[in-house]
Amino acid sequence: MDGMPRPHLPYLQRQTARGKIVWYVRKGDGPRTRIRGEYGSEGFMAAYRAAVAGIEAPAPAKPSTSSLKWLIGQYKNSTAWASLAPATRRQRENIFLHVEKSAGDKPYKAISRKTIVDGRERRKDTPAQARNFLDAMRGLFRWARDAEHVENDPTVGVKNPPKPKGEGFAAWNETDVAKYRKAWPLGTRERVWMEELLNTGLRRGDAVQLGRQHLRRIRVARENGDIIEVRAFVVKTEKSQYETEVVIPLSPAFEQAIEAGPCGDLVYIVGEQGKPLTKESFGNMFREACNTAGVKKSAHGLRKLAATRLANAGSTVAELESALGWHGGAMASHYTKTADRARLAISAHAKLRGTGDEHPIPSHRKARPLTSKKT
What we know:
The protein is 44% helix and 10% strand. By secondary structure, it is mainly α.
C-alpha cells in the first residue's frame, strides 16, 4: 500500500496517520468522510460511492455465525485475547486478516487438522511465519474449545516447522561496541539506544518503554551485612505479561549517555521528533544505525552480549534469571556453561606451565635456528 500511486478516483484522498494509510472522500472545501476497509475491496468501493453521492454508506454484512470470520471476531472480544501482549495481538491481527481473506466464509467447524497443516505448508519457505500462523490458530481454537464452540481442536499434534540451524541472532562483541561508539558519539540518540540495550539487557519491547519513572533508589544488603543504596531501574517485562520484575542498576556508561541525550520526557529511546517509538519502528531504526556503524547485527544481539558479560563476571543461573527476566534455567545455563567452559579451559592449560608439556611456540614467533660447530 505504501508504494501505491495516488488513486485517480474523484474526491478520494489519502493520508498517513500514525504510520497507517487512511482514506477520505472530500468535495471541495466540504467535510471529509472516512472510507474504511481495504482499498479496492467491495466494501471499500461501496462506501466510496455512497460518500460521493452524499448518502449513508451501507452497513457491512455481518458474517455468518458459523463462519471462521465470526469465530475470529468472538475470539478478539474474549479475555483470552485481551490477556495477550499488545505486540502479540498486532502480529495475530495481521495473520487473521490473511486467514479471513482466504477462508473467512468457511464454516469454522469444517477446519480440520489437514487444513491447519496445509496452512503451515503454504508458509514453509518462511518458517517464522509458519510458526506464527500456528501460534495464532492454536490460540484461536484453544479458546474456541474452552468456550464450547468446537469439540475438537484441529491444531493438536500439528508440529512447528524445524528452526533453522545456528545460534539465531548474531551476538555482539566488544569490537562491535567500540565501532558503534565511534560512529555514534555521546549526544546522539543512536548512542542512547545502544547504551540502554547493552547496559540493561532489556528486550526491544521493554527498552522503548524505559524512562526516568522506572529509576528508584533501592537499599540492599551485602553478604557481609552492610546496607548500601543503589540507583536501579525496576521494570516489569512485556513478555511475562508484566508479571516478572527485573531490577537493573544504573551503569556509569548508560548514565553518561542519557545525561548527554537526547531523550524524551517519559522514555529514553526516541525518534527524530523526540517522540516515543514502537518496538518494531525502533528495531528497524536501530538496525539502520548499526549498518551505518559497520555492525551488521541487531538489537537482540546486544542482549546476548549483556548476558555474556554477566556470565563471564561469574553470575550464577539464579542471578542471570533475575537480571534478564528468564525462567526455567535453560537460557541462563547456556551462558553460565559457556563462561565456565572458558574459565576451566584457561585454568587447565595454565596447569601445563612448568611441566615440560607447554604448548609449542606460535608460528608467528620463529625460533632461532640451531647451529653446530664442525668437528
